[in-house]
Amino acid sequence: MPGLVSRCTAVSVLKDIAFIDLEASGLSARSWPIEVGWCFANGGVQAMLIKPAPEWSFDDWSAEAETLHGVSPEMLDKDGVEPKEACEKLNAALAGKIIYSDAPDWDGFWLYRLFQAGRKRQRFIVSDLASLLRSVPPDKIGPLVTAAELRAPRRHRAAPDVMHMRMLYELAASGY
To answer: pLDDT by residue (tens digit) across 91-150?
Structure first.
């Protein structure tokens, strides 16, 4: 029975581990979120574009960032959800879960801006993905990142980037 208990515990932990990524209007202190994506260690990917809140200025739109992520203001207007709706969806999916980001300072900042605009309280905490990879020996990190990049490349879009983080985690957990 110990094996069954261990497997049940592992499944329980996996359903609580999630990865999050945000794309933004730029990298300034006044930038704002344009896309958010998340996935669980054992589940599918969710992503949504975010319509700009009235208080977010297009003076803070970076042409360089747009070139990198490929999201235009027109795409946000056409396909984005209002900040309040984005907050509600994030809280519904992630409340009480462990959420990991490969850029927790930036993603935390953009989540703050999003929840402020949506007038909602964030119900989850963002942690550093590096904390999940601490058991990986330093000389194995480079090969691990390369292997994850081949299997789930980063694209500077939220959905592929959370898949990349999940792949890093899966490879590290498997002892790659």
So the answer is: 999 999 989 999 999 999 999 999 999 999 999 999 999 999 998 999 999 999 999 999
Measured in whole angstroms, the distance separating CA 100 from the mean position of its chain's CA atoms is 7
Find the helix packing angle between 158-173 and 138-151, rounded to 10°: 130
Determine the pLDDT at residue 8: 35
Task: Give the list of residues 6+ apart from residue 15 with CB closer than 8 angstroms, or none.
Answer: 40, 41, 42, 43
Read off the pLDDT of residues 144-160 as tens digits, 9 standing for 90 and up.
999 999 999 999 999 99
Q: Is 111 helix (H, G, I), strand (E, B) or coil?
A: helix
What backbone phi and psi angles, to 5 degrees, belong to 161?
-70, -35
- Across 139-158, b (16+ Cβ under 10 Å) vs e yields ebeeebbeebeeebebeebb
What pLDDT band is residue 49 in, cutting at 50, 70 and 90?
Answer: very high
Encoded tokens for 128: 């550093």
Amino acid at 43: G
Task: For residue 144, give the nearest of 166, 176, 170, 174 by alpha carbon.
Answer: 176
